Structures
1.
Amino acid sequence: MQSKISISNLNFHYGKEQALHDITLEIPERQVVAFIGPSGCGKSTFLRTLNRMNDTIPIAKVDGTVLIDGNDIYAPNTDVVALRRKVGMVFQKSNPFPKSIFENVAYGIRINQMYENKANLEQKVEKALRDSALWNEVKDRLNTSAFGLSGGQQQRLCIARALAVQPEVILMDEPASALDPIATQKIEELIVELKKQYTIVIVTHNMQQAARVSDRTAFFMLGKLVEYNATQKMFTNPDEKLTEDYITGRFG
Amino acid sequence: MEHRIIDQQLDLLRDKLLLLGGMTEKALHRAMQSLMERDSDLARQVLEEDKIINQMELEIDRLSVEILALQQPAAHDLRFVISVAKITPILERIADHATNIADAAIRINDEPQLKSYIDLPAMANNAAEMLRTALDAFTTEDAALSREIIKQDQKIDASYKRVFNELIEIMIDNPSTTASAAQLLFVAKHLERIGDYVKDICELNVYLREAAFIKHSPKI
């Protein structure tokens, strides 16, 4: 299995506080990798190092390497805007722009000048909405406000917005934690569908969700990677006692 | 370690399985005793108590499903529930074989006694001992002991062949014994099958401990 993202000896500090300790991990191409662990274990921080979202925090300091397709994303000559186009992100709370459904998806295509004419732009918007399994629900109301959509639809709109700029990796930070079971199921089905084309990394507190959608699971605790294994192995017979205790709810 | 809601249910599941195991051991012991001592009343008790064993199987099935659905166990907890759910029908089938032995006893007890039961008592002792040890190995999750018990099944298989040949000879030498000897052949076959079932339990003990499926594998 070819590696899409290769992380070695990654350390991360918020000021004097070390949030990640010496993380080394390979993320295979076109697979879903889930990060699990208790609150504050560093999994979201780690996710955000993969498209340099932590750059916006002035006291943050990263050392170690993160290679995507063999290129060091922390190299001085990295185009961070291009990186974030390639490594899209979906957050816990859906955050559509205060615009129409169409404009939400078209936004990234427009600012990156990724279209030739109006018809081509419309095609791209439609494709992104189809890929996010939203098209049939919104095709007749593309020009209405995105805020009129349900929570689950808004989240899929955010996924469509991420897909519109043709990323290769999608990072998801608890994408379904604010959704009801039906909307959650749609997002999970979408994740499984999307992995045919994209490499997906998902942070989740819902262990059943990690078990359902991911190929590999990484368990973090106190900023350290405790175990990284095939999901099937992780949930039936983990190698580490700590992992077993966490996934069976034995933590005091 | 924090006390978890699931622990209470897993303990209950273990208790129920061990109770079923105890009842199964008792059924086998009494069935053989009813045969050896020509005690048809005791044999009828075995038949009667099999109904309780069947009910216990259903109870364990229900509890296993409930734990899977409501507690969503993972890792060792999951393997434990799966092992119990798979060992339960095996125990129930062992008890069915004991019932069949008791049935044979009732039939034979009306016939004149054969000169000897040859290897049958030893075979039954082996089977009972294997069953008892297998249940101990389940309780202590002892994979090494379980592998040892699996090997012992060969002894029962060898006894079965010997008993089979001897009974055929008895039938040839004295055709009037055929009805009784045929019943004893069935008894021997039931004991041989019990040995196989105990082997299955031991394979599940290994799964519980090591998450490895050794069934249908040349390596044990």
2.
Amino acid sequence: MTNFLQQVVSGLASGGIYGSLALAIVIIHRSTGVINFAQGEMATLSAFVCWTLLDHGWSFWPAFAVTLVLSFAGGVAIQQVLIRPLQGSPLLGIVILTIGLLIAINGLTTWIWGGAAKQFAGPFSTSPINVDGVAFSKQDIGVIAVSVVVVVLVGLLFTRTKAGLGLRAAAVNPVEARLVGVRVAAMLAVGWGLAAALGAVAGVMAAPSLFLEPNMMQTVLLYSFAAAVLGGMDSPVGAVVGGLLLGVLLNLTGTYVHWIGGELRLATALAVILGVLLVRPAGLFGRTAVRRV
Amino acid sequence: MRMKLIGLGLAVVVLALLPVPLSEFRTVQLATVGAYFIAILGVDVLTGHSGQISLGHGAFIAVGAYTTAILMANHGVQDYWTIPIAAGVAGGVGLVAGVPALRLSGLYLALATFGIAIAFPTILKKFDHFTGGSTGITLFGKPTQTGHGAGVLGLTNNEWLYALTWTVAVVCFLIVWWLVESRFGRSLRAVRDSELAAAASGINRSAYKVAAFGISAAFAGVAGALLAINIAYVSPDTFPIQLSLFLLVGAVVGFFGSIWGAVLGALLIQFLPDIVGLIPHVNTKQAGPTTFFYGLVLVVLMLALPLVLRAGAAIANRGYSRAQ
């Protein structure tokens, strides 16, 4: 039972990371229909920026804040320079472009920081905390707390502010949103910025436990895809819930199903992706798309 | 048509003579280019002609490579005989993969195949009694099973690798050429452009899409077999996600659907590191810069493609109005 609880909590911690990145993917997907394959590498780049600030003697939270701002700006810049010119061309072309971006950013981080894994001192101590005889890692609790705060903030932004209303309007119906005065082009750029900042949260939270290296987020990206698909590619709530569910699922199957173990985690995530897409493509929270043929 | 045949004839002559002025090292490199060329032909059939994207072709290449490696290492099969078997096995896997792919539209297929490419090496590691796990399978020390060792035409080992690869590549090219020019290819493109219209014209779209997957995977399997023979070693890390993505770069460089452009893509995959090395102050000993430029090429191409297509359409229209 003790082990079970520990596994659930550490599953929730990695689930929070998957959920944050999945949320980033969903925000872009539901506003433009694009799946951003570069989201994971953008997150790695953000984590490297944060590492560099820490390396220059900054303390964690200011470095984290500056990283978020820079990532937001980077996301907006990528949308403006690379994605906007292709607006209206076939989606597949834009998706292939994001794959190019994946490769290019991966190369860039290797070029600048080298391929060796770096120790990343997170804000939370790795010492355990005892609750009723069960030892939880403080780092896991901290990561869960940060994920919850971030998700609640994004939720408030979407549902309680005028900018959030504009973002949702631009995503749901760009033509009519433009008619009532929403600056749709700006909203799309803000969406990319927001997604990049969310990715930065995921990257910086993942770095202490995964060790920082250029390919760090490649597996996390697959888990996040699985989370987003599980929750429904168009549902922000679904992305977060999907992330948490997947984190716990992977930990429990890894611990208790012996032939899966630690080695088939990726294959399990792949099975989730394929299973959901084939059985219930809308995911747990998505609405079933009705298509006129 | 006649121009194309002449072009092909010239290409074959150039290919046959190319090893003469080149060093052994370059000859081996060009053999690898041949293997990439075959894989890109497969991607062309699938993505260019049937409109289904695959980011997971590295997995089919791995299936072909492992088929060859296991047959050669454990069953003493001659290297060239493993190639058709590798094609069959990978093609069969492709057919099986093609069935669920029917239910996935564009982006979701990209997502699912991306997942396959990332997860496949871990699956190879897991079933280690069959695949040799992380250490892989080495094919050194089996000289009699290679064409060179068997004394075919008295070629040196590197010449044998080159000759084998490009002979297979030319055969593959002819098959693909015939496929895309035939009724089969027209039907594929009809399904790609409008499933509804194709179905209304009596084309069994499911059968064609699954067949395209199988054929494409079979070519990937051939490429994998040749890579295994060339490198004489396979391991899960021989087929990282990067390989699948680079193939996509190669296919885009060759302009999707143009089987003639595939050779450009294959050359790019092999020689981009050398080209990047020409830029001053760039150290290509390190993996970063080369990878960066692979990505950059793809990004720039995708940004330029709409312009290229528009220009192409304008030129085509000019020809049309002149014909009027």
